[in-house]
Design brief:
Blueprint lengths: L14 E7 L4 E7 L6 E6 L3 E2 L4 E9 L7 E9 L5 E10 L1 E7 L7 E9 L7 E7 L7 E7 L3 E3 L4 E10 L7 E11 L2 E4 L5 E5 L3 E7 H5 L12 E10 L5 E12 L4 E3 L6 E2 L5 E8 L10 E5 L3 E4 L5 E6 L8 E7 L11 E8 L6 E6 L10 E10 L10 E8 L2 E9 L6 E7 L7 E12 L2 E12 L8 E5 L16 E5 L12 H6 L7 H9 L13 H8 L20 H22 L4 H10 L9 H4 L7 H30 L2
Parallel strand pairs: 4-10, 12-19, 21-27
Antiparallel strand pairs: 1-2, 3-5, 5-8, 6-7, 6-9, 9-10, 11-13, 13-17, 14-15, 14-16, 14-18, 18-19, 20-22, 22-25, 23-24, 23-26, 26-27, 28-29, 29-32, 30-31, 30-33, 33-34, 35-36
Helix pairs in contact: 5-8, 6-8
Length: 652
């Protein structure tokens, strides 16, 4: 099939007809065409630039299986005000270095580089950099807390400060520290927390007392709506150098953990094990490892891995109509009210003839070079049906493509069959396996299927090592001298290098590309809809990203969007719910106050708090009260929907 025959209109949906003819039957399936032809990764040489400087950047263009791709790319530069200032069409060949000159009167703030393939592409790939006036610091400050959160009942929060020159020598001087609270991107400093400490041999610490914090709130629970930040300014003893730094997003919490049902199927097979993968995070969203958890029913226990996940297996009864699950942390040092918990409900898979297939694995995240042992388990209402099952067919998918198909033999009498799968670089960052068998029950023929999503540790697909050519090249270098580098990489590889002053990352280290962002971008284009399983056989195929057509009335629904239809429906339902919430809340008021209420629920593109927006109201206190009430109400609803969407995305 030649893709050049398709219209070059990314806004127009196009389909292909897949037709199969055999002596038994003729089948036809309509399949949606996806315009996702590869990935573009954008790397800048620095995360921050001064006005009048040059932005050096590279475009990495690769195929869906991450091989170099030669293709034209449309590149755009957008200002912090979302104004397009430059457009280029570039012929890229794997790694393409480019430059962009900033003017002296350039807008300060966060800029965006946007790139997309110029042939029918609908997806933009972006990278950001900051433009600001700065002077490279001579030393860097590291701010850390013993805990990544502030528990609402804690008496104090200790903050440790390290200051070292960029060449490693510790700093001696003084540090001025100020704590503050943040909500809706609006910061409020706590003036009574300003203090000065000594920095000796590069180290110092300070403490935020609980009483200094609660004095700013009418109610203790109001603190949960804010995060803490700490600003630090260090001055050397000589007074010649001054550096500022800030640590943000210290969450105020009632529990130090959060539980998500990430990558957990929403359907179970009655009478068979149900595997759920629990994801435990710290308040800032980072994985929480070595956290003990317990799942009910069954009192199933486990401990999270380095990536914050733990796979648990719950036994189910053959007549179970609904599976109610609750997972809680069981950390010894925490009281009962400090433990985190979360619940979910799984629905039963609905077979047409009483036949089931369950795919299971043990463990959590797998590494390249390891063998994954995949278990195929069957259950049949009529045991005689099992004589028809001589093998399982399976399909393995990765990065939106089918990478392997095969069969796994089954001997007579086996209810459990295992298959060992060696993981290679091709399986990164994750893969899906779908398996099925076919049986006849009476006059009906049935396809019985199950699927599973398996995570693989993110790592390099190739080999790259950078060292000095000789021992003296690995030693500290003098300004103005040269050094030789030695590169070790895969045969015929192209390597891009960049040299950056470490001081730049002391100013801004958030916007540089890293391996995590790389794989996150790849994962985003998984064509599957769920972590596995489905409501029935067509649901299993559809949610895995596959189309199924048979001559015995088993078929997947037509896919009309490149992304999963269930997610689109979910978001449309969410929008409808918000509209209903607005109408319901406004109905509590009348006259002028109703108008004020509706104004409070309008979109707030500037990101101001509800309290700040009331400063411009001149229609009396009742109008202000109605505005504030409705503004806070709709804000809470929007945050709830965002959290639900995040949980949905995490569960993919």
């Amino acid at each position: 099939f030649n893709s050049t025959t398709l219209e070059k209109d990314p806004n127009k949906k196009q389909f292909v007809y897949v037709k199969m003819t055999s002596p038994v039957c003729t089948l036809e399936k309509v399949v949606l065409v996806s315009y996702q032809s590869g990935f573009i990764f954008i790397q800048t040489d620095k995360p921050v630039y001064t006005p009048g400087s040059r932005v050096l950047y590279r475009l990495f263009t690769v195929t869906p299986d991450l091989n170099p791709l030669s293709k034209s790319v449309n590149v755009e530069f957008w200002t912090p005000e979302n104004v397009l200032v430059k457009t280029d069409f570039i012929k890229c060949t794997g790694i393409t270095p480019l430059t962009y000159a900033l003017s002296d009167l350039v807008s300060l703030g966060i800029w965006t580089i946007s790139a997309k393939f110029d042939d029918r592409a609908v997806q933009n790939f972006t990278a950001q950099f900051e433009v600001k006036e700065y002077v490279l610091p001579s030393f860097e400050i590291k701010i850390t807390t013993r805990k990544k959160f502030f528990y609402i009942k804690d008496e104090e929060l200790r903050v440790d400060i390290e200051a070292n020159y960029l060449y490693g020598k510790p700093v001696n001087g003084k540090a001025f520290i100020l704590f503050g609270i943040k909500r809706d991107n609006e910061k409020t400093s706590l003036s009574n927390t300003l203090r000065r400490i000594e920095i000796t041999d590069g180290e110092g610490f300070t403490v935020l007392r609980r009483q200094d914090l609660v004095n700013y709130f009418k109610e203790e629970l109001d603190m949960l709506q804010y995060t803490l930040y700490v600003s630090v300014t260090v001055i050397t003893d000589s007074g010649s150098d001054l550096v500022e730094s800030e640590l943000e997003n210290i969450y105020i919490v009632t529990s130090p953990y959060k539980i998500l049902y990430t990558k957990t199927p929403k359907f179970f097979k009655p009478g068979m094990p149900f595997d759920l993968m629990v994801y435990v995070t710290n308040p800032d969203g980072t994985p929480a490892h070595r956290v003990p958890v317990v799942a009910e029913p069954g009192n199933v226990r486990g401990v999270t891995h380095e990536d914050g996940t733990v796979r648990l297996s719950i036994n189910t009864a053959s007549d179970l109509k609904q599976l109610n699950i609750k997972v809680s942390t069981t950390v010894e040092q925490l009281t009962k009210d400090q433990q985190a918990s979360a619940s979910m409900v799984a629905s039963p898979y609905k077979p047409t003839g009483g036949n089931y297939l369950h795919i299971g694995v043990t463990g959590g995240e797998y590494k390249i070079g390891e063998n994954v042992v995949i278990n195929f388990i069957i259950r049949n209402t009529d045991p005689d049906v099992q004589t028809q099952i001589t093998h399982y067919n399976y399909v393995i998918m990765n990065k939106g493509r089918i990478m392997k198909v095969g069969t796994q033999e089954r001997s007579k009498g086996q209810t459990l069959v295992t298959m060992s799968l060696l993981l290679t670089e091709e399986f990164i960052p994750s893969f899906r396996i779908l398996a099925y068998y076919t049986v006849s029950t009476g006059s009906h023929r049935e396809v019985v299927a199950d699927s599973l999503w398996i995570d693989v540790e993110d790592t390099c697909m190739g080999t790259l090592r950078v060292t000095g050519e000789k021992d003296r090249d690995n030693m500290i270098q003098q300004p103005g001298t040269s050094m030789m580098l030695k590169l070790q990489a895969d045969y015929n590889a192209t390597v891009g290098l960049v040299a950056v002053d470490r001081g730049v990352y002391a100013i801004n280290s958030k916007l540089k590309i890293n391996q995590g962002k790389f794989w996150e971008s790849v994962e985003r284009y998984d064509i599957g809809c769920t972590p596995g399983s489905g409501a029935d056989t067509p649901g299993v195929f559809y949610d895995s990203g596959l189309a199924l057509q048979t001559n015995f009335q088993i078929t997947t629904p037509q896919r009309s969007e490149p992304i999963c239809q269930p997610q689109l429906k979910r978001r449309r339902r969410a929008s409808a719910i918000l509209i209903q919430e607005r109408d319901k809340k406004a109905s509590q008021y009348s006259g002028l106050e109703k108008t004020c209420c509706k104004d409070g629920m309008l979109k707030n593109p500037m990101g101001h708090t509800c309290e700040r927006r009331t400063r411009h109201i001149q229609d009396g206190q009742k109008c202000i009260d109605a505005f504030l009430d409705c503004c806070k109400h709709i804000k809470k609803q929007i945050e709830l929907e965002k959290e639900l969407h995040k949980d949905d995305d995490d569960a993919r």
